[in-house]
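=== RUN LOG ===
request id: a7f3
mode: sequence -> structure
chains: 1
length: 219
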Amino acid sequence: MARRPQHPQPPRLGAPDLPRALTDVEGLDAGADCFQVRITALAEATDAAHSALTECSVSPASVDRLDLSGATLVDVAIDELRATTVTARDARLRRVRITGGRLGTLDLATAGVDEVELRGIRIDYLSLGAAKIEDLLIADCTITTLDMPQAIAKRVRFENTRADEVDTRGMRADSLDLRGLEAASYLDVSSLRGATLSPPQVEQLSSAFAVALGIDVQD
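=== RESULT ===
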């Protein structure tokens, strides 16, 4: 008898494919085309919009703003980045791993997110609004506000992560595993169709589910 497919399906992740040796380069510019380099000494305000990073790493840095709007990142590792704002709207990320650090805003709205891992980061505001997401792991993170309105989320998993507020309005989900996300509140529980929750999470959200279904609960 054939086995039933596992549900929810875990993210299909691969580590960034980096060469053993990378060439050090300082800074990033808009439209830059970087291949097999280690990027160091980012400027306080770095405009790397529409750049292309392939098989690259970004060294620990502290910046005010990193603009990756419309950029393409393939096989990229970013470690211990501290930034007030990182914007990557309309960017394409494939096999990207961001580890450690502190981000005020990480804006991935309308981005293409494929085989991406966020691990051990403190993020005040994480936006995935209208993003197309396949294979995303968010682990050991603390997030104040997580926005996913109108996102398409497939094979997404949270592990040991907490968020104060989660906005899922209009989200479409397939294998969205929320069991590892401790969320204080969801703005729209009716958009959790296709997500997986633990029994305690369902119990915690029971009143919100009742309101969403038009159920009047009284003693």
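=== NOTES ===
The helical segments are 199-204, 206-212.
The two ends are 48 Å apart (CA to CA).
=== END ===
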